[in-house]
Amino acid sequence: MKQVYRYGLSGLLLLGGLAAPGRARAQDAKASFSLGSTQDLVRQLEAQVAPDAAQRSTPTVTLRVSATKAFTGKVNFRQDLSTDGEYLIGEIQNVPGSSFLLRIEGSTVQGNIIFRQTRQAYQYSADARGIVRIQPADINKVICIDYNEPVGLATPTLRGDNTASRAAVVSLQSYPGARGCIMLDFDGQYVSGTPWNNGNPINAAPAGMTDAAIQEFWELVSEDFRPFNMNVTTDEAVFNSYPKTMRMRCIITPTNTAAPGAGGVAYLTSFNWNDDTPCWVFMTSPKAGGEAASHEVGHTLGLSHDGRTNPKEEYYDARTSAGNWAPIMGAGYYKPVTHWSRGEYAYASQTQDDLAIMAGATYNVGYRNDDHANGISGATALGRNGTSVSGSGIIERTADQDYFTFTCGAGTVNLNLNTVGRHGDLDIVGRLFNSSGGLIGTYDTQGSLSTTVSANLAAGTYYLQIDGTSYGNPTTEGYSDYGSLGTFSISGTVPAGGTTAGVATVFKDCNYTGAAVALPVGDYNLAALQSRGILNDDVSSLTVNGGYQVVLYENDNFTGAALTLTASNSCLVNNPLGTGNWNDKATSLRVQPAASSFSVTLQAEAASVNNGMTVETCTDAGGGQNMGYVDAGDYLVWNGINFPTSGSYTIEYRVASGGSGGTISSDLNAGAIQLGNSAIPGTGGWQNWTTVSRTVTINAGTYNFGIYAQTGGWNINWVRISKAGAARTMLASEVAAPETAPTLEIYPNPVTDQLQIRSDASLAGSDYQILDAWGKTVATGSAASGRLNVSHLQPGMYTLRLVIEGKAQPAKRFLK
């Protein structure tokens, strides 16, 4: 049975006696000190509880921190945690501004000793063997200290009766059902049995805020935690539905007993302490109080202060900066934009990765799931009502990019890309692409979190990318895109009509009757179909132009059973795949060039060659094509070969050899993508032609195709590339590869030494620029090889800018 005692524990808190007072040895200030095993310590404490409680009116304990140094602690709260634990809270006798806590539960040990006036602290822990240890600690790694109110803030008047009737607070939730929970508690709270006030109770007064002020306060904190799987609520019942290790109460009150004179206070890492120790905010204005609440909850999730080393300051408030930004873990009172940070500003006192720490495994919260595709394939269709369109989403991570699609008639497209109406974190950049993924324009209103898109477009299908962006110079007045995260909305007008001539048409009824919608080449999930007036499970017949195919999928997002049609079909009844039929069954579909329709023959004379290879002309019975003689080390390249769809391709080499043959290899983009080797047989004569082939897998896109003579020498007549095999039905268990290659792809990401570039335009003559997280150029050069050496770069986030054929490509971010 658990028992709770207040003012009732004395005796020694440590194994062994108390040494005589004296000056601690130099090593004591650094080294940890062993206090024995957890269970030995618990048994000693349990043996002292009963006699101590009966005999002492002012219980004290001895808190040893080294072999030569100990403090006397006055116990204000004690809880017996069954047979394997103790929970003690109190203060150091005769030392104002001091406190201690020690919680032992099984093999888990948590606790500290704090001296606020001298800014000293010690922390308890247990090692892998269950040995309790204590050692000096940076007080700022234990508790938020000296986090003062903004300059000039009016101090609220404390209500005299804290137990008076408290008005109900409006119930708000930012992410119902999320893994973790933050409660903003505005209606007052009686707090006992926590480290606050040295274990003595606190009867916190209500905040006394209007519903409108509470709403704004909640909006600010909700947006700060929007990227995470976290529900910010004002509802006590919602908070109580979460386990203690997955929730944090932040009390907003003028009662500042927990930290007199401060703007707020919290214990670091207390989110998962399992004892409902709250954090506090003592300001009731939405801006100042909201910034303080995010700051203090950030502490409970393991974050330290963002300060500066020059001038030396614990909290960076950016008041001397010309910009509009400050870090949340600094003092964000004075700036309209605040972000989670990794110390990118000048003289940062620490470079802690705020996002990674809060989303890490320690607190088991993590990021939200991504809500939109990060590329053109699978882009979400904007909702449409006449000429009005709309959409919304969340940028959850620094590298997240959300894609949307729309079809329009010829005319001007006007779109508003907005973050939240107040206290936003997301600085938006929009990018507009055409149907093949070519960049039309980049739209970023510097100095404003929101932006607009205005473009005069031809009829067709387009894609809109939403991304977080930077502002100014992060080392001085600006910020990088690291913490530019949060909510966005899309609204505006798009000319109606504009359906381009479709290569496929789907019909509501059999025999090509009922509502008909023409579709150009592209991927159409359920949302994209519905935006065009095609309902779920409502396609009964379709037409397909020659050279194209339609792949029907039973489920959304191109999953489930699938059926590939390379010709028109007047009625999908009795078109079985396994069992059943395909009438009124399609939920998503793809329109693409037919898998068997692609074939290109490459002549040797048209290739770019090296090593002085001789290109000759001859006539032969196999087709009279131009040819060349290939010797070991020769390399032939044909630029701009388009592979219309992803999948298997057959590469055929027509060759002749007078000797023993050799080995030939093929690749894409100057070796960036290797397609493997093929053995060339000896044909017994330079005009005795044979065809050697191999099957390879290639993603859709435009590449420079090359062949390289590994060994031997032979005549080459031609190289033919064709789509391997006929179209086939996909199995339900297969996941289809994207059919449209991105305009620019980089890999691997993260990268160590070599960054590869893949583009559907030729890289010949292209140039690149690499910028670091501060916007500084750190590397430039030619990108023609498709391979960049980044081994010299320091670890961090970088942006790659590429110019191909004189046109700037969409910027890509990569992590080193």
From TrEMBL:
Read off the InterPro entries from this record.
Beta/gamma_crystallin (IPR001064), CBM6 (IPR005084), Cellulose-bd_IV (IPR006584), G_crystallin-like (IPR011024), Galactose-bd-like_sf (IPR008979), Peptidase_C_arc/bac (IPR007280), Secre_tail (IPR026444)
Keywords annotated in UniProt: Repeat, Signal
According to the entry, every stretch annotated as the CBM6 domain falls at 600-722
The Beta/gamma crystallin 'Greek key' domain extends over 548-593
The answer, when asked if ATP-binding is one of the entry's keywords, is no
Q: Is the Repeat keyword given for this protein?
A: yes
Instruction: State the PROSITE patterns in the record.
Output: CBM6, CRYSTALLIN_BETA_GAMMA
Task: Give the family per the record.
Answer: Belongs to the beta/gamma-crystallin family.
Give the protein name, as stated in the record.
Answer: Carbohydrate-binding protein
Which species does the entry assign this protein to?
Hymenobacter metallicola
